[in-house]
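Action item from last meeting closed. Structure (282 res):
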């Protein structure tokens, strides 16, 4: 028997009695941040303006989410925040996520429902949870009072190179034929068997304990607070508002709308408009 297996068994035996109640429930608070690496046209922005833009974008990706969970299901939702700021000098910033979005998972039935507002329309994305091929590691660390174990998995993702240049144009034929270049990305998660629910923030799940920390490329998600069996019981209900689609249908709709928007707002050659409009989803 490996060392990590022994540790997991000891911890699970020690906590199973405390979480065996049928009404077991918890509320976990997560904070997210994303590293920003964007190249912008230096002829349109001086160093001070670029620095200001980058700081504003960093703050936009520093969000707080709440995960309400029980043994089989969960709700993941962004906490309310102030209106997104605008930067002077012709720069406008808008981001894809909405505080009204709700992500519901049922880890027992292997399904999820993602209630999402995108481009002024409400969608209800219903689909099956894709299994994650986690590799359990022997590394451990404490997050708050919880002993956590490391797990990783590797997936292929499109390479993203955001280069905002006001002199750029879009070639529709080349854009349609060219397939995105892919690269391997290793995702690292830290989970605690002290809270034995196979759940976590966003779509992350499938480990023998609640996931408290995730590193996925430039995205970092860290749990800052956990309340087990809060005094006021929170109902975990599947969201119902929006046009019902599956994940592929939603992705196709977004791809079509994104291309239309890029074609509409792409600056033409010789354009004197110095404004830069940035929209980043996720």
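Sequence:
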């Amino acid at each position: 028997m490996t060392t990590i297996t022994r540790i997991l068994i000891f911890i699970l035996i020690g906590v199973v009695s405390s979480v065996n109640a049928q009404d077991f429930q918890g509320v976990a608070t997560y904070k997210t941040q994303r590293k920003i690496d964007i190249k912008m046209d230096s002829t349109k922005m001086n160093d001070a303006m670029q620095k200001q833009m980058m700081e504003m974008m960093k703050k936009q990706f520093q969000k707080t989410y709440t995960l309400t969970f029980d043994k089989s299901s969960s709700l993941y939702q962004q906490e309310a925040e102030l209106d997104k700021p605008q930067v002077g000098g012709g720069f406008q910033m808008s981001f894809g996520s909405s505080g009204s979005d709700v992500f519901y998972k049922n880890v027992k039935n292997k399904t999820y429902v993602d209630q999402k507002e995108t481009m002024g329309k409400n969608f209800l994305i219903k689909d099956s949870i894709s299994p994650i091929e986690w590799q359990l590691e022997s590394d451990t660390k404490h997050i708050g009072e919880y002993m956590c174990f490391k797990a990783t998995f590797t997936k292929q993702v499109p390479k993203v190179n955001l280069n905002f240049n006001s002199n750029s144009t879009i070639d529709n034929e080349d854009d349609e034929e060219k397939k995105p270049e892919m690269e391997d990305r290793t995702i690292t998660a830290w989970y605690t068997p002290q809270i034995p629910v196979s759940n976590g923030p966003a779509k992350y799940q499938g480990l023998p304990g609640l996931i408290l920390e995730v590193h996925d490329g430039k995205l970092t998600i860290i749990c800052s607070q956990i309340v087990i069996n809060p005094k006021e019981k929170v109902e975990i209900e599947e969201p119902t508002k929006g046009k019902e689609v599956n994940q592929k249908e939603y992705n196709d709709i977004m791809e079509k709308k994104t291309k239309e928007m890029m074609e509409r707002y792409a600056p033409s050659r010789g354009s004197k408009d110095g404004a830069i409009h940035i929209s980043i989803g996720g």
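Note appended to the action item: The domain at 3-280 is CATH 2.50.20.10 (outer membrane lipoprotein receptor (LolB), chain A).
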